[in-house]
Amino acid sequence: MINFNLFYNELIKVLFKRRTYISFILITFLIPLIVYGFEYGAVSLEDKISDQMQDIVVTAGSAVNGYLAAYIIISILISQMSFLSTIVPSEIISGEYSKGTFRIYLTRPISRSSLFLSKVLVVLLYTTLMMVYFFTYTILVSYLILDKGMLIVFHDGIVGLDPVNDNVLYRFFLGFMLSNFIMITVSFLCLMFSSFSKNSVTPIISTISIVFIGAAILFIPIDIFEAINPYIFTGYMNIFLKAFYEPIPYELFYDCLYVCSTWSLLFLSIAYYNFIRRDILE
Fold this sequence. Notes:
Elements: H1 4-15, H2 22-41, H3 43-52, H4 66-77, H5 81-84, H6 89-92, H7 94-99, H8 102-105, H9 112-146, E1 151-154, E2 158-161, H10 168-196, H11 201-219, H12 223-228, H13 239-242, H14 250-277
Antiparallel strand pairs: 1-2
Helix pairs in contact: 1-9, 2-4, 2-9, 4-9, 9-10, 9-14, 10-11, 10-14
C-alpha cells in the first residue's frame, strides 16, 4: 500500500537536489539551437527530400517544417535520453547508503516495502515527466519556429504523412508512450544497480554499459543478434520511428510493452529483494 507521507518525503528530497534539473535544463537550451539550425541551415536536406518526392505533392508549407524537425530531433536524441533517465534512480538508494541516512531512516516505524515503493514511484514520475517535457517541448518549439506541414518520413522509400488525415500528432503521442516505457525500464535497471551500490556513479556506468551493449546488438546486422533483439528491451530503442510507419505496426508495439514490462518487473524484484535484506549498518 502506498504511504503518501513517504512518497511526499522522497519527492521533496529529489526536488531539492540540483542534479534533478540537469535533464530539463539541457533539453530547454539544446532543442531551440537545433531547430534554428533547421531554419537557417537545412537547404541541403530540403533539396535531398525534394529530389526523392517527385510523386508527392506538398500541399502547404515547406518539406522542412516543424513536424519534420521534431521527428528528426526526437529520433536522434531518444537514445540519449536513456543517459538522462539515470540521474535520479542512480542516487535515490545508493545516496542514502553513502550518506548514512538509512541508519536513522530505517530505524523508524516504517516498512522497507513502503519506502521502496515510494522511491519506485518517484523514479517513475521523474522519468515520465522528463519524457513528457522532451516530446512536448520539442514539438512545440519546432512548430513555433518552422510552422506545420506535411511530415516526410523514410520507410520503404518516401512516405508523406498529412497532419490531419494521417494523424501525425497521434503518431507522436504513440511514439512517446512506447519510448517512455523503454526509458522507465532503463530507470528501473539503474534503480536495481543503485540498490547494490554505495555511490551514484557505479549505477550510471553499469546502466550505460548495458544500454551501449544493447545498442550494438540492435544495430549490428548479425543473425544471432537479430534473434536476440525481440527479447531484450534495448532491441526496441528505435521504436519511436515505427510509430510513423504505414500501416502502424501495432503487433510490434504489443511485443515492446510485454518485453519492457517483463524486464522492469525483473529489475524491481531484484532491487526489492536486495533492499529488504541489506544490512543498514554495513
